[in-house]
Structure formats: C-alpha cells, structure tokens
Amino acid sequence: MRLTSGSAVALTTLAALTSPGSIQAQTDARLDGLKDEVLEMVEADGKMVQEIVDMLFSFGELGFQEFETQRYLTGILEEAGFEIELGVAGMPSAWTARWSNGTGEPVIALGSDVDGIPQSSQKPGVGYREAILPMAPGHGEGHNSGQAVNIVAALNVKELMEREGINGTLLIWPGIAEEQLGSKAFFVRDGTFDGVDVNLFTHVSANFGVSWGQSGSNALVSAQFRFRGETAHSAVSPWRGRSALDALMLMAQAWEFKREHLRPAERSHYVIVDGGDQPNVVPQTATIWFYFREVDYALVMESYNAAKQMAEGAALMTGTQVDTIMTIGSAWSAHFSKPVAEATYANIQRVGLPEWSQDDIALANGLQLELGQDPRGLPTEVGDLRGPSDPSRSLGGGSDDIGDVSWNMPTVTLNYPANMPGGPGHNWANGIPMATPIAHKGSLAGAKVQALTLLDLFLDGETVDAAWAYFNDEQTAETRYTPFISSTDQPAIWLNEDIMAQWREKMRPYYFDPDRYDNYLEQLGIEYPTVRSRPISEEDSS
Ligand SMILES: [Zn+2]
C-alpha cells in the first residue's frame, strides 16, 4: 500500500551533490525527494481518511463526551506504535498519542478539534434539512475531519522517519470541547505541550488557508452565574419567596443596556441553563451562561468584571445571593507563527485544491440555493497567505482556544477544504458535506499539506529555529500570556453529559460500520447528491 520508489531518487540526488558548500542543496534535494514520496503515500491512504471522517461523523459526540472518538482514534494510533495517554489534563475524554525516533527532537504536535454541535444531526449528502435523528447532536461544524488529516499525515511521515533514521517526536492530540472553549487552556496549564517545538493545528474550512501574526479571532471567557433565593408557593405565599430567576433576568437586562456602550468588536451571548422547575414554585436557583468576547485579554476581563458587578446588583435588588460564578471556558485571540505559516502556505500551493466532481458541485449549489444564496459551488483557487489583522479595526467574530496554545509555542492553524461555502456555521447545513466525497477529498488534501509541513520541520534545519526566533523576538516581545483560568479552575467535564446520556444509545445503531459498508452514504442509503430541484422557499410560496 505504501510506495517506496522515491527513496531511490533521493539517494541518487544526494550522491550527485558532493561538492563543498552544497550541504544545503543536499538537504533541499533530499527533502524534496521525500516530499514527492510522501504525497504518493498519503494519496494511497484515501480509504483510511474516508473511514476516519465517516466514523467520527457518525459518533456525533458533544464536547467533553468524546469517548467513542477517543476509543476509535487511540486504537488506530496504538496499533501504529504510538504511546497513548488517556484522560489528559483532568479531562476524561482527552488523550495524547506520542511516538519518538532517534534523539526525539524536534517535537512536533498535531492537533484538531473533535466535538460536535447540539441538535445538528443531518444526513450527509442531502442538500436540505433532513436529520438522521431529529434533535440529536451531530457534526454541524465539521470537527469530524481534522483528526483524519493529522493521523494520516503522521503515520506516513512516521514510516519515512523510521526508514530514513529521521530524528523527532510526533504528538497527536484532540481539541476537546472546542465549542465550549473548554480544553486547550487546561492542556497548556497542565504541561501537555511541555517540550513541544511547533504545534500544527488544523481546522475544517471551505478552502485551504493559513495566516500568520495576530489573528482576527476574539478572545473569550465563558462563565456561568448561579443565583440562590428562597422557594415558596407562587400563589399562596409568594411574598415569602425570593426568586433567583428574578435576579437572573435583571442581570440579563442590565447586560442588554450595557450592550449599547460596547465596542464594535465585542460579542456576547447567553442562554439560561436553569430557570427554575415549574411556575408555581418560586425558583430557588437560577443559572445563566454567558460568553464574553473582545479582541484581547484586558477587554474581555473588563466585560467579565462588569458582569460580576451586575450579578451582585441583581442579587441586591431581589434579596437573593450570587451563589457561584464559574469560569468554564476561555480563549486567547490567536497569534500564528510567520515562518511556519509560510512553510505551510508553500505546501498548500504545491498540493492545490482537490478535483471536485460534478456531484460535489451539484451538492454545494443545491445547498446554496436552499439557503437563498446565489449558487457558487466549491472553490477553484486557494486563497492568499493572510498576514496580521489589526485589532483596533476588528468588527468581532468567533474564538478558538488554540489561541492559548499559540501564545505558548509557535503554532499555526491549517484550514483545509472539507466543507462548502454557504452555511451559517454551528448548523445542520455545515454538516451536509462532512461525510461525502467533499470532506474525504478535502481532508486527504489537508493530510498531504500536513505531511509536507512535518517533513519541513523535521528536515529543513531552519523552520523550527526561525519559528522560535519569531515567537521570542517578535510575537512575545511586548505581550505576555496571562491565562483566563486560575491555577485551581477545573475543566467543565460535566458539560453535555445529560444530552449524550439521552442520545448515545439512540445514535449507536447509526455508527459507521466499515465491515459492512464502503462508506457512510452507502450505509444510510443516500443517493449522492440528493438536492431539491427547486429551493423550498419557492415550493412553499403558493
Ligand atoms: Zn471549530
């Protein structure tokens, strides 16, 4: 299955280059030969990419409950000779897989998120809303694909490292509960990445992409505020009750007034996770869950501290108490390594976008029509290498706790083209392509880029040093990392326990069975692609 012809080419090239001063040329020629070879090796592993992508899609696990995913992926890696550690950094569903050769230096980590989105269960390859299990969780972002990118890249590079005697360590890790921004600051705090030279993160997208410098992502704190009052009969003796829900609603209202006076980059949102039990019992407890986002640590803390004061004020107004304020997730705004991003981008250009079939394009067009957009299919050109964004001009946006990693070691995020343009994000629509040839080909292309970048880092003799020079001399020259989490905060591993307890057994019959089916579309009996001839908005307009 793995090709070995390229090694002969590399050795011949080496022998030809013996003149003094040609060491760099020899290194380049050897690296180039191995790169050609690894591209063929990864290409031959398309089936493995497809199976991993389909399997994780079918698990559809939410943050902190990624146990099937853990079992399956660590099984593959253990069999391939990696040393597995489970329950890393106090998170039962977290894990690392480590393999070293020779001196073990440099240490390159490969990470990608694995968690899903509530209520986003969706039949893949169907260009409109049709759940596998209505209301069940699913991969409505595409986090089912990144581990296939990393693992297939790592296994092939490992094979070359063994054969060629290349020194280094591969450390594979999962972004647990990324949707709750729940894990990466804890990985950092607990030393999971100690000794790592470069962290190659990867995230699903509709196109290839990589950036360096200050990213446009927002920093974030996620926190739950719990109020405590006194229960009473809501009709017989309401004057004896003190409603925790009243406090919660006043706090939320205060935040809505504050919203007028926040900067354009600010994003905040909340859900009520406990609003009492039933109307005729004055709520004794109530809990509201906020996300506060701004461009940097200081501005996020300003929001968080203002919210804490509002909570105290709301408690005073209602005769209740602030029972608990719990930080349960956090993220720094990311800053990515210039040397590693440049190496990655050169590899993106070398690999290029997958060849999309007419069926792939028809699915994308179908969904875009369904969502009321002009059909624009799938990307045909890779974008530019993006440089730093200017926080003072930020209009806000999402967050990713890879930011915390990026402030502790040279890091980049490789975006690979396994999704399609048009979805609103965190939605069933974003799950549609994620177990189809679009995701399979896009993830395979991502694995090729990741494998090439690994070879650069292990062999070119300059990118790792340049990455640390950039990290020390430029990135962290003026900014110091202060974690949002304290030394005693614990990961919120109880999150989503109840939802997965409700759904897991119902989802189990739909787990991908590669012994019986070639792919998940076949298992579900879905004709690819299935799209409406007209969007539903027209059909409904009669
Ligand atoms: Zn994500």
Describe this structure in words.
This protein has 542 residues and is an alpha/beta fold. The protein is built from 16 helices and 12 strands. The chain has helices spanning 5-16, 23-43, 46-59, 67-79, 146-164, 184-189, 244-259, 297-318, 338-351, 358-370, 402-406, 437-459, 463-475, 497-507, 520-524, 536-539, and strands at residues 83-86, 95-101, 107-113, 168-175, 198-205, 213-214, 219-228, 267-274, 285-294, 321-331, 335-336, 411-417. The strands form 3 sheets. A 6-stranded mixed sheet has the order 1-2-4-3-5-12. Strands 8-9-7-10 form a 4-stranded antiparallel sheet. α5 (146-164) links the parallel β3 (107-113) and β4. It binds zinc ion (ZN).
Which terms summarize this structure?
about 550 residues; alpha/beta; four-stranded antiparallel β-sheet; globular; binds zinc ion
